[in-house]
């Protein structure tokens, strides 16, 4: 007999093989990937391939831009400019709104203060005005 | 094997098959989500459930006020600044898993700055603009609306960095500062520091190639590799509990939030990587906002710094640095959870909720 009865039962248990397989995979995967992600050589390779990818993207973008311009169609840059312009207008409106609020506050503060009593010179001036009238 | 044993084995085999089928279904569904699916999922799973209203908008930014539940509110309003990397609603994930719901129930007047989804119109907007215009305007709105001369400012993750910079720039507006898993010292700040090193990470080239916004997939590509073991463990946990409906509901809620990624405004990303990660200016007291130095020693108000013990995104050390840089009295708490799980899992989230609420409500 190749297996003892207990071993055979364990082997036949549903999921036992799957469990063992994944546990071993997990240990190996975590260990190796963890090491790789800290390895300066690997990071340099990733960086260089990312650089190549970004260069290709730039070229593809330039090509599609030139194509759209020839077709007399708005490019993404054109759309962005419009959106950025709208954003600037909105910001200006909100800046103005803040200024108006500040002015309203100042007016409210002034209203709260008691009205200054008429000074002697201004009463005299009022008296003169009455006489002249 | 007798008949009884055979029946038991076939039952176990059936369950195993069902488990495998369901697991494959959940994982495939999760990976096939498209940006258009999230509104439907948010309704289906009842994500971000705490009632709120929009009280101010500018560009993609929205300022929410959460509907109070108590008549008498705490005198100082709380403004929450979420991270720019993912959406705000991890702080209001589902009922009973929401720090915002907890604050509202405790009578705190809660406001939240939702950065929205940046588009091409954000192309020229800088980090300084986000702090000195978007956030400043939101704080101003809250102060005018409530009549309060000061606010309590809370930031989560990168939102905490933004909140700290704001508090250092406008210290006169801040009553208390609350930071949740907030990176401050970026030197030797884990794998992200290594990966964004100027020798291998050419930020100018990336920004130039992508233009106005850095795509969400680019920004998020790295996160699942920050802690490979934790990533594998989360799938393992899903597999083991995939037949438990309660677990599955919670898993889908958190997973949907994680997949609901947003792009990063390019100029903001540039300053974030160069001046924070590569030059570590904030911790060195050299970070500026529109020419004004955001020196953290300007923060004289009480500060609560809550960090997670097993943070794989920003190590504890990176967040702890805040304690020594501010001049205000600092309360420091380490929660035995991960970067996100400290506000979502049981029982750790209740400890986070308690610590933060007590800090806000105490005189």
Describe the structure.
The complex is a heterodimer of chains A (about 130) and B (about 375). Chain A has about 130 residues and is an all-alpha fold. Helix content of chain A is about 85%, strand content about 0%. Chain A has helices at about 5-10, 15-35, 40-70, 75-110, 120-130. The radius of gyration of chain A is 40 Å and the shape is elongated. The relative contact order of chain A is 0.03. Chain B is of the alpha/beta class and about 375 residues long. Chain B has a domain at about 300-310 and about 340-363. Chain B is about 45% helix and about 15% strand. Chain B has helices spanning about 5-30, 40-45, 100-105, 125-145, 160-170, 190-195, 205-210, 215-220, 225, 230-240, 245-260, 265-280, 280-285, 315-325, 350-360; strands at about 50-60, 60-65, 80, 110-115, 150-155, 175-180, 215, 265, 290, 290-295, 305-310, 330-335. The model of chain B has no long low-confidence stretch (mean pLDDT about 90). Classes of the chains: A mainly alpha (about 130), B alpha/beta (about 375). The interface of A and B includes residues 37, 83 and 84 of A.
Order of helices and strands of chain A: HHHHH
- Strand tally of chain B, please? 12
User: Helix/strand/pairing class of chain A, anyone?
Assistant: mainly alpha
Beta-strand content estimate of chain A: under 5%
Biggest sheet features of chain B: 8 strands, mixed
Distance, first to last CA of chain B: 71 Å
Assembly classification: heterodimer
Largest sheet strand order of chain B: 1-2-4-3-5-6-11-12
Return the string of H and E elements of chain B. HHEEEHEHEHEHHEHHHHEHHEEEHEH
Q: Name the average pLDDT of chain A.
A: 82
Radius of gyration of chain B: 22 Å
Major beta-sheet overview of chain A: none
Rg of chain A over CA atoms, rounded to whole Å, is: 40 Å
- Counted by DSSP, the helix tally of chain B is 15
Shape of chain B: globular
Which spans of chain B have pLDDT < 50 for at least 5 consecutive residues? Answer: none
- Determine the mean pLDDT of chain B: 92
Got a strand count of chain A?
A: 0
- Number of helical stretches of at least 4 residues of chain A: 5
């Amino acid at each position: 007999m190749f297996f003892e009865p207990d071993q055979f039962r364990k082997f036949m248990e549903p999921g036992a093989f799957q469990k063992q397989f994944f546990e071993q995979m997990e240990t190996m995967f975590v260990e190796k990937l963890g090491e790789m992600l800290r390895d300066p050589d690997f990071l340099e390779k990733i960086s260089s391939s990312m650089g190549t990818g970004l260069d290709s993207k730039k070229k593809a973008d330039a090509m599609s831009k030139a194509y759209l311009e020839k077709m007399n169609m708005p490019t993404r840059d054109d759309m962005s400019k419009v959106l950025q312009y709208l954003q600037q207008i909105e910001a200006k409106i909100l800046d103005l709104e803040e200024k108006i609020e500040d002015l309203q506050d100042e007016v409210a503060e002034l209203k709260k203060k008691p009205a200054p009593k008429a000074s002697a010179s201004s009463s005299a001036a009022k008296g003169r005005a009455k006489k002249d009238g | 094997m007798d008949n009884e044993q055979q029946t038991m084995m076939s039952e176990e085999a059936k369950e195993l098959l069902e488990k495998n089928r369901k697991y494959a279904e959940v994982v495939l569904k999760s990976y096939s989500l498209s940006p258009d699916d999230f509104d439907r999922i948010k309704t289906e799973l009842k994500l971000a459930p705490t009632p709120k209203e929009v009280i101010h908008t500018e560009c993609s930014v929205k300022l929410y006020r959460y509907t109070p539940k108590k008549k008498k509110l705490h005198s100082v309003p709380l403004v929450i600044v979420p991270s720019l990397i993912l959406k705000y609603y991890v702080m209001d994930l589902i009922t009973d898993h929401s720090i915002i719901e907890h604050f509202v129930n405790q009578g705190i007047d809660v406001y939240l700055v939702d950065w929205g989804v940046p588009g091409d119109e954000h192309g020229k907007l800088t980090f300084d603009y986000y702090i000195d215009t978007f956030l400043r305007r939101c704080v101003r709105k809250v102060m005018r609306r409530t009549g309060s001369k000061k606010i309590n400012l809370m930031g989560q993750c990168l939102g905490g960095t933004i909140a700290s910079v704001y508090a250092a720039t406008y210290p006169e507006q801040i009553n208390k500062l609350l930071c949740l898993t907030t990176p401050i010292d970026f030197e030797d700040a884990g794998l992200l520091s290594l990966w964004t090193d100027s020798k291998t990470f050419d930020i100018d080239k990336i920004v130039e190639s992508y233009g106005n916004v850095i795509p969400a997939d680019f920004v998020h590509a790295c996160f699942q590799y920050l802690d490979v073991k934790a990533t594998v463990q989360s799938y393992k946990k899903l597999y083991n509990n995939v037949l438990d409906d309660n677990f599955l509901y919670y898993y889908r809620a958190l997973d949907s939030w994680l997949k609901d990624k947003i792009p990063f405004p390019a100029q903001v990303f540039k300053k974030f990587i160069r001046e924070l990660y590569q030059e570590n200016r904030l911790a060195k007291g050299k970070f500026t906002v529109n020419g004004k130095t955001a020196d953290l020693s300007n923060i004289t108000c009480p500060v609560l710094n809550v960090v997670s013990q097993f943070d794989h995104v920003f190590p504890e050390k990176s967040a702890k640095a805040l304690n020594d840089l501010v001049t205000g009295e600092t309360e420091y708490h380490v929660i035995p959870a991960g970067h996100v799980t400290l506000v979502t899992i049981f029982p750790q989230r209740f400890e986070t909720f308690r610590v933060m609420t007590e800090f806000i409500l105490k005189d």
